[in-house]
Amino acid sequence: MFSSHGRLASSLTVLLLAGATVADNARSRAEDAFKTLQGWYNPSTGLWDTAGWWNCANVMTVVADLALVEPSVMDNASYVFNNTLIMAPPQNPHPGPEVKVNSARDLSARVNQAVNASQWLDSAYDDDGWWALAWIAAYDVTEDNQYLQLAEGIFDGLTKAWGTRCSNGGIPWNPSNDYVNAITNELFLSTAAHLANRVPSQKDYYVDWAQREWNWFLAQGFIGENNTINDGLLDNCQNNGATVWSYNQGVVLGGLVELNKAAPNETYLETANTIAKAAIETLTDSNKVLHDSCEPDNCEPDATQFKGVFIRNLEMLQRASPHDIYKEVIINSADSIWNNDRNGQGQLGVDWAGPLHNPADATTHSCAMEALVAAISV
Ligand SMILES: *[C@@H]1O[C@H](CO)[C@@H](O)[C@H](O)[C@H]1NC(C)=O
Ligand SMILES: *[C@@H]1O[C@H](CO)[C@@H](O)[C@H](O)[C@H]1NC(C)=O
Ligand SMILES: *[C@@H]1O[C@H](CO)[C@@H](O)[C@H](O)[C@H]1NC(C)=O
Ligand SMILES: *[C@@H]1O[C@H](CO)[C@@H](O)[C@H](O)[C@H]1NC(C)=O
Ligand SMILES: *[C@@H]1O[C@H](CO)[C@@H](O)[C@H](O)[C@H]1NC(C)=O
């Protein structure tokens, strides 16, 4: 009796220790990746060198995602959010004509206009959506209302683009190109749904926009025959059969998780699970490591960012509707990145199965870091 009890106790101890070691590894890997990431952070631009404007919204989001589960990086993350808020707007590559503050050298003018959304809008509506979600992520960790206010302002700017094509709905890609793509509309859905859960006084307004977008999205041909989402629509509003990118299977998942929280409807998580499983079937290799079809040579400068977006949103779905296969994709991708896709400086590359493919830059690194961060929580 005593000895078997003792054996049980000691094997429990071993199990607990093993669990703790795995978690510590995931944490220390992600923290290590954060230190490497900050080697690219440029305090005078508020952006990460080697990453473009929209990419940087995703880089900032991974910093927020880490801070949410790892309080020890909170001070560094808060510094980044504030500094980026003040310093980044002059880097906007296509600011609207009325944005005067962009040219102001005067720091106090910038501080005064910090939450003025017009500084963050550029000529691509998807870019605007990435920044809205990035500021929501910063709000989630800091509870600083100015970040939420900025996200609301950006969303308000996007609503003005609603409804010119395809059943008089949706958001086109940008003001001068009416290509209707999935990502812009998924971002609009996700931003509206996130805001519905964070701005109680305007909840109905944001739920209404999210549902309007989602019902429109379902009625168009974005979702192809294998339940994967193609890049966009033809001029006649039919599915254009273009590349099944990982990020297009991702943003929609987080959007539906948030919408289901704000206005429960069992179809939301059902559809999210169908899309997530189809994406895993289509985009992971035999080790359940995620890929995009551009690897390794043809992903820069945009598609190097995509897989992290999928993983971030898959992790949101895993929290709302857990499936072993989601956990497996997150863990296997993170392990493979760490073991096979890291150079001597700790920089992470584009092909998560490895070997490391140059360049490893702030886009490939932040993208892979998203998997290391997700692995902390699953
Ligand atoms: C975090 O902030 C401290 C203090 O400013 C700084 O020394 C350190 O390099 C920062 N770490 C990262 C990862 O940026
Ligand atoms: C925010 O960043 C700006 C620019 O670096 C700086 O001048 C200001 O002191 C920072 N504010 C806080 C509260 O850290
Ligand atoms: C926001 O910035 C735009 C462009 O500089 C300006 O026209 C507008 O008045 C600003 N809004 C506020 C509330 O300051
Ligand atoms: C659907 O999956 C089948 C089998 O993997 C594949 O041959 C086909 O090309 C896929 N269709 C699309 C539109 O991706
Ligand atoms: C649930 O969502 C689906 C898809 O948007 C919609 O068709 C259906 O009417 C919704 N059900 C309810 C009860 O609102």
Automatic annotation (TrEMBL):
Q: Which domain of life is it from?
A: Eukaryota
Q: Name the InterPro entries for this protein.
A: 6-hairpin_glycosidase_sf, Glyco_hydro_76, MUG_Protein
> What GO terms in the biological process aspect are recorded for it?
carbohydrate metabolic process
Q: Which UniProt keywords apply?
A: Signal
- The answer to keyword Signal applying to this record is yes
List the SUPFAM superfamilies: Six-hairpin glycosidases
Query: Is the keyword Lyase assigned to this protein?
Result: no
Name of this protein: Mannan endo-1,6-alpha-mannosidase
